[in-house]
From TrEMBL:
One of its GO terms (molecular function) is FAD binding. InterPro entries: BBE (IPR012951), FAD-bd_PCMH (IPR016166), FAD-bd_PCMH-like_sf (IPR036318), FAD-bd_PCMH_sub2 (IPR016169), FAD-linked_Oxidoreductases_BP (IPR050432), Oxid_FAD_bind_N (IPR006094). Pfam families: BBE, FAD_binding_4. This is FAD-binding PCMH-type domain-containing protein. Residues 1-22 form the signal peptide.
């Protein structure tokens, strides 16, 4: 379909009759989305969702309409005459974000007008497990409840819901799926009050303007694949970005700082969708391991980003690249999500197809003595850096149940020769397979994995361990690995050697540049996590007994750090651990682009200015009002 035809089709859909929260209203008010010229920015055309925008002309139309003019300021840009500083003053004077029991909570008529302007995209939240309860959302439905329960660990199930999150502890567990819920209640907890099903940029602009004007807490949800609860928040308005799924292959891209094959990705696409698209077009792109993770609106590969399209806290749609708004370009590449702007699309560099060999094996103490197991494992860590430098990327798991074990996905021959020479036996023999493309290798290795989500029996944690730990204090580091596993804890690890590509002048935590081992672990699953008191005990053990030894052996001052996701939400000195020496610069950029903190996410840049008043939950959740610290 040609660009002009696409615009016409979109316009026809936008101007269809609107139903507002179950009733017809404002029938003479048109939705705000207006087609703008099909421009090419940062070397690539705007995507279909980006062509439909909120414009100054639309805002003026609201001001000039006598029936709604008194509400126009709720939808005006921050830099417009309509707002004229009132919004900033209102936000600055408030001690908390507006909550449902505040007199300043927007009246129903304003929410209805908001929905009309959105084109009927406003969704009142219904917790995904509500069918398991007699609640304000209806009577218990046992069949639907069984379906929810059976699918609660499936990431696709949560991605398809406007507000569901994959790590329920941080939502407050106020409506968990259970077959027997007699005498139990289902409430919103940290689920937002409303979500906007985003299909165009105008809806994002309207929501940002509305949240800023009404001093509402604003959330951004793509897939819900967040281990710290960043896409949840009590009393909030949420942007559900997952339906922005356009992928454009640009074989002859020419843009700021790069010429060559590229992909332009809408904010809602997942890692697997990106890998599939790259493979179909004969190229390769870098990305995350987990196939259900959002890509452009989740986990980008910062060094390979050429440009972003974003909506800022003022409600304006901007191009961000090294040639346009370079400070924001620097911050968005590694400086944490949900805090600088809402990304609508990203342009990334693509690379030629490559051959990949996958391999896997298991070493454990069921077929060896414990001493032999640790001898073989020590050899693995001794050659750790050599393999990484040679281009081997590994994903492995260590634990001790029923016996100490090490599973591996990729390896090389000298290691096996060492095992043979020392009579160390693999319990699962080494197998390998050659692949002609990365996507084929990905599907054989990680694409078939079902990573556990939707669970509430542990708290996540991680640590970035630098190269020097395997050069200057390898014995001490290995001793801690051994102690960790022998204590009954698991360790999911990656070993790698980050390369210096173009665009490495960005906000990625400096610890990643020196990373040799990235490990993910969790609180002790044998402890009670079901109550606030139990969570507090488990979290204390996690901080003091599990994580602190890793902080001590890989401190920030020596190149250590923490990854932003799958982390402890109560990481001490989190600014340094998550962002390293870049935090002061990131904080200054945050204040420049979002002075009144329209965007907030736990452990994100600037979040130290806020606190979630969630009571005694045992660990920081998002189940409470957001107030100034």
């Amino acid at each position: 379909m040609a660009p002009l035809q696409r615009v016409a089709a979109c316009l026809f859909l936008v101007l269809s009759p609107v139903t507002v929260l179950g009733q017809s209203s404002f029938t003479d008010i048109e939705p705000a989305a207006t087609p703008v010229p099909v421009a090419s920015v940062a070397g690539a055309p705007l995507q279909e969702s980006e062509i439909l925008q909120l414009t100054d002309a639309v805002v003026k139309r609201l001001v000039d309409d006598d029936s709604i003019s008194k509400y126009a300021e709720y939808f005006a840009f921050d830099d417009s005459d309509v707002a004229s500083g009132k919004q900033a003053r209102r936000a600055a004077s408030a001690s908390c974000k507006t909550f449902l029991d505040n007199s300043s909570w927007p009246k129903d008529i304003i929410w209805k007008l908001f929905d009309v302007l959105l084109g009927g995209a406003l969704i009142p939240t219904k917790p995904v497990a509500a069918p398991c309860y007699d609640s304000q959302w209806g009577k218990k439905d046992s069949a639907k409840c069984a379906d929810v329960t059976n699918n609660f660990t499936n990431p696709l199930f949560h991605e398809a819901d406007p507000t569901s999150n994959m790590w329920p502890i941080f939502q407050g567990r106020t409506c968990m799926p259970k077959s027997d819920t007699t005498g139990k209640t289902c409430t919103l907890g940290a689920y937002p009050e409303y979500a906007v099903k985003v299909t165009n940029v105008a809806q994002i602009q309207l929501a940002i303007n509305f949240a800023r004007a009404a001093n509402l807490r604003l959330l951004i949800k793509n897939t819900g694949h967040c281990y710290l609860g960043k896409s949840t928040g009590a009393g909030a308005l949420s942007l559900w970005m997952h339906n922005l799924d356009q992928i454009d292959f640009l074989p002859n891209y020419k843009g700021p700082g790069y010429s060559g094959p590229a992909l332009k990705l809408a904010a809602g696409v997942t890692a697997r969708q990106v890998y599939e698209a790259a493979d179909k077009n004969g190229v390769t792109v870098l990305g995350p391991v987990s196939w259900s993770v959002g890509y452009a609106g989740g986990m980008i590969t910062a060094d390979h980003v050429v440009a972003f399209q974003v909506v800022t806290a003022s409600g304006r749609f901007l191009t961000v690249s090294e040639a346009s708004n370079p400070d924001l370009f620097w911050a968005l590449r590694g400086g944490g999500g949900g805090t600088f702007a809402v990304v609508t699309s990203v342009i990334i560099r693509a690379h030629p197809k490559l051959n990949v060999v996958t391999a896997g094996w298991v070493l454990d103490a069921s077929t060896n003595s414990v001493d032999a197991f640790w001898t073989g494992t020590k050899k693995f860590y001794d050659v750790f850096l050599d393999w990484a430098d040679a281009g081997v990327y590994s994903f492995f798991i260590m634990g001790n149940k029923p016996a100490p074990f090490l599973t591996m996905i990729k390896l090389v021959k000298p290691f096996f020769d060492y095992l043979d020479a020392n009579n160390i036996t693999l319990s699962k023999p080494h197998t390998s397979e050659a692949h002609r493309t990365f996507y084929s290798a990905y599907q054989a290795a990680w694409g078939s994995n079902s990573f556990p989500i939707g669970l509430d029996n542990s708290l996540p944690a991680n640590r970035i361990v630098p190269r020097r730990n395997f050069q200057e204090k390898s014995n001490e580091t290995f001793a801690l690995i051994k102690e960790h596993v022998n204590a009954g804890r698991h360790l999911l690890g990656y070993h790698k050697t980050p390369k210096k590509y173009a665009n490495t002048d960005n906000a990625v935590n400096p610890a990643w540049r020196e990373c040799a081992l990235f490990l993910i672990t969790s609180s002790d699953k044998t402890l009670d996590h079901s109550t606030p008191e139990g969570l507090a005990i488990a979290n204390k053990d996690l901080q003091e007994n599990i994580l602190q030894p890793w902080r001590d052996i890989a401190p920030v001052s020596e190149g250590g750090g923490t990854y932003l996701n799958e982390a402890s939400v109560m990481e001490p000195d989190w600014q340094e651990s998550f962002y390293g020496s870049y935090y002061p610069r990131l904080s200054a950029i945050k204040k420049k682009w979002d002075l009144t903190d329209v965007f907030y996410a736990t452990t994100a840049v600037g979040s130290e200015r806020w606190v979630v008043q969630d009571g005694e939950q045992g660990v920081q959740t998002q189940n409470g009002r957001l107030c100034r610290a």
